Amino acid sequence: MRKVIFAALLLLCSVTLNAGEWLRVNLLGYLPQDVKVAVYMSNDSTNILGMTAQGELFQVVEALSGKVVYSAPATFSTNAEKWGMKRAARLDFSEFSLPGGYYIKFRGAKSPAFKIGADIYNGLSDYMLTYMRQQRCGDNPYNNAPCHTHDGYIVDHPTRSGEHIDATGGWHDATDYLQYQTTSATACYHMLFAYMEQKDKSVFKDEYDATGRKGSNGIPDILDEAKWGLDWLVKMNPEPEVMFAQIADDRDHAGFRFPQLDSVDYGWGKGLGRPVYFVTGKPQGLGKYINRTTGVASVAGKFASTFAMGAATFKSIDPEFAAKLTTKAEQAYAFALTKPGNTQTACLVSPYFYEEDTYTDDVELAAATFYNYTKAASPLLSSLSANSKWLKEADYWGELEPISPWMELGRGRHYQFYPFINLGHYYLASSKDEKIAKKYTAFMKEGLQDLLNRGEGDPFLNGIPYIWCSNNLTSAAITQARLYNQVTGDESFLEMEAALRDWLFGCNPWGTTMISGYPAGAADVPTQPHSSYVVELGEIPYAGLIDGPVYRTVFMERAGQSLTHPDVFEELNQGIAVYHDDVGDYASNEPTMDGTAGLTFYFAAMENKGREQSAENGNAKLLKDAYGATVRVNPTEKSIYLVFTADSNFNGAETILNTLKKAKVKGSFFLTGNCLRMDEHKDVIEKIINEEHYIGGHSDSHMLYANWGNRDSLIVSYNDILKDLEGNAAELAEFGVTPEQSRWFLPPYEYYNKESVFLAESMGYRVVNYTPGTATPADYTTPDMPNYKSSQTLIDSLYKFEIEQGLNGAIILIHPGIEESRTDRLYNRLGEIIKYLRGKGYNFKSFKDIK
Q1: Residue 531: which of 554, 513, 547 has the closest Cα?
Q2: DSSP state of 19
Q3: What is the DSSP letter of 493?
Q4: Angle between helical axes of 297-313 and 181-197 (0-180°, round to 10)
Q5: If we measure between CA atoms, which residue out of 614, 689, 629 comes closest to residue 657?
Q6: DSSP single-letter state for residue 214
Q7: Which residues, including other chains, have CB under 8 Å from residue 568's CB and lie 6 or more apart?
Q8: Which of 370, 399, 586, 634 has the fewest CB atoms lying closer than 10 Å?
């Protein structure tokens, strides 16, 4: 895990040429065919004249060459003062779609480098599960330690209070260790929804087992995580009309600590069991603070919808479990109708709780889920009634809340209007009943239009109310916008969707992403979220969506004295809302479990959107390793890519070139700046170019980027890496090799991490490495080394690998520069390797052949 001591490095890439001017971009990057808008801000009072004149041009600049590739007029915003600025502008470069690495320049500001590429969302939906696994209660795979194994004791039940039941499992809600049915059921539904809504389910990988530990089990990880939640929800609804909605209460707020060391005493001994709140349908609270509960329908509706969705999802995976969930879904729905109203969370120490006031949306979602999964010819929920019944029921409850109240009103108390998105409307908008579909697409549109209207004039086009957990609202808004576009094809809200998505990735006043530690290598990410892991271990709780900016008044009321260090964003915290990357700020900088799960659908949808754009352009399919480097190209094709990396030693180059020429094979050479600068190599480098082999970068000074003992830790700064890349590109340019001709980059020592890969790709490179297991990279070893491998051993290992795993799309690396003490040089046997593999049906390509 990367330590937060590297937080200072993150700011090095935030570029401003003049004080008081900033350019904000999506630090993750942009899909080629997507809406792309950067935002300029200025609080420089000396730079006002002429700033309102529309038509002033901004520039998109290729990061490696410094060449201007696009320019267009800026559009100045009318409400810059919302963010404490004198002037602001939106810089729309949507027309520019060429993949690569770029930055934007406008007036006195320059943005960080960013990538345009079809693969920017790849793996992100699954990545969000990193935080979900960390939040597991009972058996926690992150700590590899059990926690809260004594849960729990029933409270607020007319006859069973004090009785011990098994309520272990589920997820901790945030940095505290409370557990709520309302957020857990919602998170579970979101993950199931993410999976079921993707036609191409290959975006979901199987790299973890059911316990959340490394190792595949034949089930996509997102379903493993959802089932972890479903199993807990079953415990919280053990029998018909018996439901529990909460474990622990605000006595939990007892400081930073690991979950396995939680020693809060709720009356049964320190760490020996927590209260499990029975759903009464009446106001609750064990002390002087009483919530405003009016019924059971909000809880029962969430049980019903999540169980129904689980039954549909696991129908073919685990039929017995699915049948159990079907029965429980029907029972929960019936119970919801007996006591309409909302159930709020309970508190004891302070008057703060989740103030959910709505319930009709929960009942609608349950009925709409039943409807959606019984309308097929072979119903997934085969025991449920005819779908016409569920359509009628869903429509009844849906009409009672046509627009999510926070969208319509632009306000809300803490979790007052929850869930923040009404997915029931989406199912009804997708109905085959044209009248119903028209009605609910109109409802979806009205909510989005309300947001767009409130965002008018805001340079970030942001109409979200900055209440606690504003990022959860942002997640809900982009999800609704994506679903609305999918259902209708209406593009009216694409720019707003892009603006709110970009907000989460750095196009906001603070220039930071809103996902803990992600993306590694970006100019600024949350590195000190409100988390015990930051305080106790100095580790980032990766992948957690943080709460997000809050109104200044909310921060001052709830967490005004919480900061642990001077506010690095003070100059930017002069507007309507504030944000602090400070471990003390639990109002704007605490990751939440339900917010994180809520993004899994959206990121999966964007990955598939990127795949579609890539396929339309005929791009190669790339297999990448865990750090983001390509390790196979078009893995279904019987093509092999021979690559050769060199620093100062290049003694085998002529031999390799002669072999390649004789075999009529084109290779790919990756050279350092050191190699390119040496006079004795110039002739052979010219020969590589003239014979039309691929030539690309291997760093400038053969700088080691990451620690050999701890790959996640960089040993150089971000700026050092960027300068190294620029230096390498400059030396290639001396041979007439342009950035466009040398997009593929093979890192020095063939060693890198997520941060260095991200930096390289933001500069426009596509990072590549040899295919793991091919063995040949060990040809550098010398006889005095304990890990020495002879050429015959390496060849035998390569051929064995081919038999066991195949070499389709494989990248085979052979070093062209070998120490004099090694006389047994693998490059001398390149010809026989080519001949053998051709005999196995393979052909050979270079990186010039890849689109």
Answers
A1: 547
A2: T
A3: T
A4: 30
A5: 689
A6: B
A7: 11, 581
A8: 399
- Give first-to-last CA distance, the chain, whole Å: 34
Distance CA 474, CA 406 (A): 11
- Report how far residue 101's alpha carbon sits from residue 186's, in angstroms, rounded to the nearest whole number: 38
C-alpha torsion sign, points 126, 128, 130, 135? negative
Measure Cα distances from 266 to 156, 261, 270, 276 in Å: 14, 15, 7, 11
Q: Across the 851 residues of the chain, what is the mean pLDDT of every consecutive 10-residue run?
A: 35 56 98 98 70 78 95 96 97 97 96 96 98 97 96 97 98 96 98 97 97 97 98 98 97 95 96 97 96 98 98 96 96 97 96 95 97 62 64 97 98 96 98 96 98 98 97 98 98 98 98 97 96 95 97 92 95 97 96 98 98 86 95 97 97 97 98 97 98 98 94 92 95 96 97 96 96 97 96 98 98 96 96 98 97 84
DSSP 692-750: T-EEEE--SS----B-SS-TTSBSS-HHHHHHHHHHHHHHHHTTT--GGG--EE--GGG
Burial readout 80-103 (b: 16 or more C-beta within 10 A, e: otherwise): bbbbebbbbbbbbbeebbebbbbb
Tell me how far apart the alpha carbons of residues 32 and 93 are, in angstroms, rounded to a whole number: 11
255 close to 221: Cβ distance less than 8 angstroms:
no
Q: Report yes or no on whether pTM surpasses 0.90.
A: yes
Q: Which of 677, 680, 682, 657 is nearest to 667 (CA)?
A: 657
Nearest-5° Cα angle at 406, 500 to 443: 85
What does the block give as tokens for 161? Answer: 């209070």
